[in-house]
Write a structure and sequence with these properties.
This protein is α+β, with helices and mostly antiparallel strands and 110 residues long. It has one domain: Alpha-Beta Plaits (2-Layer Sandwich). Helices cover 33% and strands 27% of the residues. It has a three-stranded mixed β-sheet with strand order 1-2-3, covered by helices on one side. Strand 1 and strand 2 form a beta hairpin. The longest helix has 20 residues. The protein is elongated and about 50 Å long. The C terminus is likely disordered.
C-alpha cells in the first residue's frame, strides 16, 4: 500500500506502544501455562535482559505423560516463539525449571 500525495506512510505515524514488565510477565505466564499444561497460578515467570533480548525464567509443574524432558524442551521452544510473536519482542532464551507433575483428576472422591 503506498501513501498518497501529502500523506505519511503508516510507519511514519508518530507514537509508540509500550508493554510493561507486568504485562509481559502475564503474557509469558499464560503462554507457559497453556504449553506446559499447568495452571497459570502455579507458575512463576521471571524476565531478564539477555544481550538485548528478553530472557524468560519459567518455574512450575508440567502435565503428566510421556517423556517429560522432551516435552519441557519442546515447550521452551514454543514458549520462546509464541511470546516473541505476541509481544513483538526478541526472546533470546527460555529456561524452564520443573517443580512437579500435574495430573488430571477424573473426579472427586467423596
Amino acid at each position: 500500500m503506498s501513501a498518497g500525495p501529502g500523506s505519511l506512510p503508516v510507519s511514519a505515524v508518530p507514537g509508540r506502544v509500550e508493554i510493561t514488565a507486568r504485562a509481559l510477565t502475564a503474557l509469558a505466564r499464560a503462554v507457559a501455562a497453556e504449553r506446559l499444561g499447568a495452571p497459570a497460578k502455579r507458575l512463576r515467570v521471571g524476565l531478564e535482559d539477555h544481550d538485548g533480548a528478553l530472557a524468560l525464567e519459567v518455574t512450575g509443574p508440567i502435565a503428566a505423560g510421556g517423556d517429560v524432558v522432551s516435552a519441557a524442551t519442546t515447550a521452551a521452544d514454543t514458549i520462546r516463539s509464541r511470546v516473541g510473536d505476541l509481544s513483538g519482542r526478541r526472546v533470546g532464551r527460555t529456561h524452564i525449571e520443573l517443580t512437579g507433575i500435574v495430573r488430571e483428576h477424573e473426579g472427586r472422591v467423596r
